[in-house]
UniProtKB/TrEMBL annotation:
Entry-linked CDD domains: NAT_SF (cd04301)
Signal peptide: none
An MF annotation (GO) of this entry: acyltransferase activity, transferring groups other than amino-acyl groups
Domain N-acetyltransferase: 1-189
Naturally occurring in which organism (per UniProt): Fusarium beomiforme
SUPFAM superfamilies: Acyl-CoA N-acyltransferases (Nat)
Record's protein name: GNAT family acetyltransferase
Pfam family, one: Acetyltransf_1
Amino acid sequence: MDYTTEDIVNAYQSNRLEYIRADKDDENLKKVSLAILQDPVIQALTAPTMLLPKGKKDVDSYVESVANSLLGVAICLKEDENKTEDKDKKSPTIIGVMCIGWGGISPTVAHHRTAEIGISLLKEYQGKGYGREAINWIVDWGFRHAGLHTIGICTADYNPRAVHLYENMGFKLEGRRRGTIWQNRKWYDLVEFGMTEDEWEALRGLDKA
């Protein structure tokens, strides 16, 4: 194996972003997570949980679950994307949180080699292509380095932007869990997407492993 290849050298970054392993004791990550969890729009679009204000215990539980995932990361701007003048800045600029295999994968089901992606971006960094870039990175990581065979991602059908994005990225519609999300006095479907290792190889123009 050539350990100087781009896939190894740049394993923890993409074009504009870098990815830092989530740490449950990272106060910077907790601060960003609180901002994400306290935004009702982000909460409604990214998780089918009851819409309610979040506090310290919720943040601690959320960050711990991200940290315990198969891979949970803080999505950070690369230095050239971060326009700050402070060259001695110690903390990276975290713009979101992403994981695959939320909360960890039990050894009793690990042999299925499948996991789902979850991602949340701060409002001011949405609509700039960062979500697509980050998802592409973690999909590549899952198939290239974690040995996964299938990767899933889902959204509510009241989030058409996410539906369009996932389809455009090459995820296949696998089904709908009809009327399973109650939001603002209406029932909505959970839309489930997936990608197989073979489909990923075809998308990236790679030979079969």
